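Lab intake sheet, docking and co-folding queue.

SAMPLE TYPE: protein with bound small molecule
LIGAND NAME: zinc ion
LIGAND FORMAT: SMILES
REQUESTED OUTPUT: full 3D complex as C-alpha cells
PRIORITY: normal
SUBMITTED BY: R.K., bench team

The fields below were copied directly from the construct record.
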Amino acid sequence: MEHIKAALPQPQITSVNQTYWDSLKAGDLMFQQCACGHRWLPARTECPSCLARDWQWKKATGDARLVTWVVYHHAYHPSVADRLPYTVAVVELAEGPRLVTNIVEQDHPEPLRVDMPLALRIEVEGDTSLPRFAVRPPGEAETMAPH
Ligand SMILES: [Zn+2]
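RESULT FIELD (auto-filled):
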C-alpha cells in the first residue's frame, strides 16, 4: 500500500492574525499588548481583559516555561502519523501570554517537568512557520526580557 503523506492543517490567515504568521516567517514570535498592560495570544481584535482595541504587537524574547503537556502515541490526523510520539504542550512566554505548541528536540536527558525553562524554535512546515519550543539546555542563559 502506498503511503500518502498528508500535510499538516494550515492556519486560517485573517486580517487579525496576519502579523502573527508573517512575523514567524521573519523569525519573530509576536504577541499583543493592550494599553491596559494585558498581553495575550492568540490574536484577537479586542483585549480579553478590558475589551479595548488599543493594543500593539510586541516581540517575544522566546523564553518560556512549561505549563502542562501530553504525549500523543496515536495519530488522530494522518499528517502526524510519521511523527509519533509527539508532545503537545501549553507554554507560558516570559512576557505572560500562553500558547498551545509542540515540545521538540526531546533527546534532552531530563524528563519534562512543570516550570521547565524552554526556548523558542521556529520550524517551517510547508508554507507556515510554527512556534515550537525546546528544553533550554542547562547553562544556556535566558534572554533578558525588555521591561
Ligand atoms: Zn486591555
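REVIEWER NOTE: The chain is about 5% helix and 35% strand.
SIGN-OFF: pending second check by T.M.
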